[in-house]
Amino acid sequence: MAADYVSPIDERVRAAEPLAPRPVSVSGRRVVLLDIRKNRGAEFLDRVETLLRAAGATTARAAKEIFSKPAALGLIDEIAGRGDLVVEALAD
Amino acid sequence: MTTDPRPLGGPRTGGNGPGGGRGPAPGLRVRGTGPGEVTVSSLTADGPALLLFVSEECPTSAMALRHLGPLCRAWAEAGLTSTAVFEDPLEVAIRVARRRGWTGRVVSEDAPYETSRDYGLVSVPTAVLLDRAGLLAGRVTGWDQPALAALIGAAAEMLGTPLAVPPATDPPRKPGCSSKAALDPELVAAMSGPAGGDDLEEMFERGWTDGLPVIPPTAERVEAMLGAADGTVSLGLVPPAMGEATLERVAACAVLAGCRPAYFPVVYAAVRAALDPAFNLHGQAVTTQPAGQLIVVNGPVREAIGLNSGMGALGPGFRPNLTIGRALRLVVTLTGGAMPGALDRSTLGQMGKVGFCIAEDEEASPWEPLHVERGFAPGQSVVTVIGSDAPLSISDHRSRTPEDLGYVLAWAAASTWSTNWWPLAEPSVFVICPEHAEMFRGAGWTKQRLREFMFEAVHKPAGDLRRGETTPFVHAADPAAQVPKWASPEAIVLLVAGGEAGRYSAVLGPCTGMGSQIVSREVEPLWPPTT
User: Fold this and answer.
1) Which helix (H) or strand (E) holds B438?
2) Terminus of chain B with fewer CB atoms < 10 Å: N or C?
3) Residues of B in contact with A68 (CB under 8 A)
4) How far apart are CA A85 and CA A82, in angstroms?
5) A6: left (phi over 0), alpha (psi -120 to 50) or beta
6) What is the mean pLDDT of residues A25-35?
7) Residue A70 touches chain B, beta carbons under 8 Å
C-alpha cells in the first residue's frame, strides 16, 4: 500500500500567465529599457535604445535595485504605467 | 445535472445526480474504527446515508474530503450520516481524513475492493446516497459541486429539513482518479505488494531527495517532528519557485534530512533566518556561483542536541550538524524548487550545498561568540546564516607570534572569490582552530584586534590587481594606491571550532554581488523535546 507521506513540496499549480500580444512594429510605442544592474548591461541597453529610437519608438530607462533580487512590485507597476513594451538586459 | 440511467451495479458511465435506478444498496465489506460491523442497515438506521468513496493518492478525493468534510457534523445532527470509504488501509484512511478535515465516519476496504466493485465504481471520489430503506438514491462521480448540492438537496427532502450544501468551488467540476476496483488486479497487487514497496526508492522516484537516500516523511514522523506545533503555520514563500514553507513542509524536509525531533527548533530558526529578505536567498538559490548557506549555531542548544564544535567540526560524523544543514537545503531545493541543474544554475556547486551546519566552540574561544557579537545574550541559543563558499584549509604549525599567524590566516583568503577581486564587501568566515586561538589568547589579542590586523595585513597596489577579473574600484584607483582585500574589518567573521590538536584553521570565501547580509534568529522552544 502507498504510505501516507507528507509532501515537502508546495503542490499547488499556478496558472501560467499568458504572454502579452507581440507588437507588429515598435514605431510610436513607448519602450522601457530595464537595466538589472549586471555588469555592462547599461552599455547593451544604450545600443538598443539607439536602434529603437531610430525605428520610431520613444524610450525610457528603469533599473532594478540589484540583479540578484526580483524586481520590486513598485518598479514593475511603474514600468507598466510608463511603457507599452519592455526590453530587459540580462547579463554581461 | 443528469440522473443516473444505470439500474444497479456495473460500471457507471452516465451523468451525476440524485435519482437513477432505485434498488437495494450492495452490502459493505469494509473495516471501521468502531467495535461493530459497518453495514448498510446500520448506516441507514436513523435516516439517509452518504457514502463517499475516496483514495489517498487522488487529488480530487482530497478536494471532496476537504469541501464536504466540514459539513458532516451538521448533517449528522440533521439525520444524514456520512461515511468516507477509503480504498486504502484503515490507518492511512484515518490520517488522511483527519488531515483533510473530514468529520464523518471513516471506513476502509482492502484489495480486491469488492465494495467499490459492487457499487460499480469507475473512479474516485464517488458519492452515493442511500435512503433510509437502504435503497440507492443517487450518485455523483468526481468532484461536481452542482450535482453534489443536488444530491444533498435530495437527502434534505428525505429528512424534511434543510441541509448545508457544499460551497461553490473553482473549478466547479473536476474529474476523479481511477478506482482501484477498476484496475487490473495484478497491477493493484504490484502497486500494493512488497515488490513495489521500496519506500527509499520511492523517494527518488518522487524527486524528494538531494541525490542521497532520505528518510521517508511519513505522517507519523512528520507529526513527531512537529510535536505540538501547528503544521499549517506559514514561514513564508521559499524562492525561487515561491513554494510556501508551511511548518509541516519544513518538518517533512527535516524528516527527509534525517533530523531528530529535538533538532527541529534549530531547523525552524535557520529557515526563518534564510527567508529574511536581507539574506537574499533568491539570489543564492539560483546563482551560477557555488554559494551555500552556512548555518552557525551558538548557545546552549549546541550541547542540548549534540552539535559538534570540536574535532572535525566542518566535516562528517555528527548527525545534528549534517542533518540540520541538509534540512535547510532540502527546504530550498524541494519547497523552494531550487533543484541543481534546474532553477539552481550553479556552475560547479560545492559540497556545502548538500548542507553545512557548524557550531562554535565557545568554551575553547578566547573571545565573545558570534551571537554575542551580533547582540544576543550569551545564554541565548541562536542560529546565524551566512552565504558562503566552500572552506579552504589553512595550515600553520610554525608561527610563533600572533602577528605571524594573523598574517598567514589573512593572506590565505587573498584569492577567495577571485584572485584580483579586491575589496570584498561581503563577509569571509574564518574558523580558527583551538591551538591557533590559544596563541591569540596568550598574547591578549581581542577579536577586534585580530580582525583589524588581518584587514591591514592584506593590501596590494591597485596596479598589481589589474589582471583578469577585478573590481571597478581597482580600475578607478591610482595604480600605486593600496587596496585592501576587504572593504572593512567588519567583513572578517571570526569563529572558533575544531579539535584540540592540530593547527589547521579555515576560511570560507563569500557569496558576492548579492547584497546578502548575515542574519541571526533565536532558537525558540516550539517543542517539548524528549529525544
Assistant:
1) helix B434-442
2) C
3) 280, 282-283, 287, 513-515
4) 9
5) beta
6) 96
7) yes
Question: What's the mean pLDDT when you consider all of chain B?
Answer: 91
Q: Are B357 and B307 in contact (CB under 8 A)?
A: yes
What DSSP state is assigned to residue B278? G
Per-position b or e across A15-49, b if 16+ CB within 10 A of its CB: eeeeeeeeeeebeebebbbbbbbbeebbebbeeeb
How far lies B512's CA from each of B279, B387, B439, B491, in Å? 12, 9, 31, 12
Cell of B445: 589579542
Interface test with A, best of B90, B110, B208, B259 (most A CBs within 10 A): B208
Burial class of residue B220 (count of CB atoms within 10 Å of its CB; 0-12, 13-18, 19+): middle
Whether the bond between B427 and the residue before it is cis, its omega within 30 degrees of 0, is no
Map residue B386 onto helix, strand or coil: strand
What is the dihedral sign for C-alpha B413, B414, B418, B421?
positive
Q: For residue B256, list chain A residues with Cβ-Cβ distance below 8 A.
A: 8
Residue whose cell numbers read 587573498: B414
3-state secondary structure of B273: helix
Is residue B142 within 8 Å of B12, Cβ to Cβ? no
**A10 interface with B at CB cutoff 8 Å:** yes
Give, as one character, the DSSP assignment of residue B161.
Answer: S
Q: Which residues of B90-106 are buried (b: 16+ CB within 10 A; e: fewer)?
A: bebbbbbbebbebbbbb
- For residue B432, the cross-strand partners are B496
Instruction: Find the closest chain A residue to B89 by CA distance.
Output: A1
C-alpha B45/C-alpha B134 separation (Å) is 9
- The verdict on a CB contact (< 8 Å) between A69 and B89 is no
Q: What is the ipTM of this complex?
A: 0.86
Say if the Cβ atoms of B222 and A2 lie within 8 Å. Answer: no
Q: Which long-range contacts (CB under 8 A, 24 or more apart) does B164-173 make?
A: B164/B71, B164/B74, B164/B75, B165/B71, B166/B67, B166/B68, B166/B71, B167/B67, B169/B63, B169/B67, B169/B143, B169/B145, B172/B144, B172/B145, B172/B146, B173/B142, B173/B143, B173/B144, B173/B145, B173/B146
Give this prediction's pTM: 0.69
With an 8 Å Cβ cutoff, are A10 and B191 in contact? no
Task: Supply φ then ψ for residue B522, to 5 degrees.
Answer: -70, 145
Q: What residues are paired with B349 via a beta bridge?
A: none
- pLDDT at position A59, please? 97
* CB within 8 Å: A10 and B283: no
A40 and chain B: CB distance < 8 Å anywhere? no
Kindly report the CA angle at B258 between B257 and B264, in degrees rounded to 5?
Answer: 85
Short-list B16, B43, B38, CA closest to B152: B16
| pLDDT of the residue at B282 | 96
Using pLDDT thresholds of 50, 70 and 90, give the confidence band for residue B90.
confident
Give the closest of B191, B253, B515 to A66, CB-based: B515
Q: For B357, list phi and psi in degrees, rounded to 5.
A: -125, 125
Q: Grid coordinates standing for B139?
A: 450518485
Does A3 lie at the interface with B, CB-CB under 8 angstroms?
yes
A69 touches chain B (CB under 8 A): yes
Chain A CB contacts of B232 under 8 Å are none
Q: Determine the Cα–Cα distance for residues B483 and B496; give it in Å rounded to an integer.
A: 28
Q: Is the pLDDT of residue B518 over 90?
A: yes
- For residue B289 the three cell numbers come to 556561483
Whether residue B498 is predicted with pLDDT greater than 50 in this model: the reply is: yes
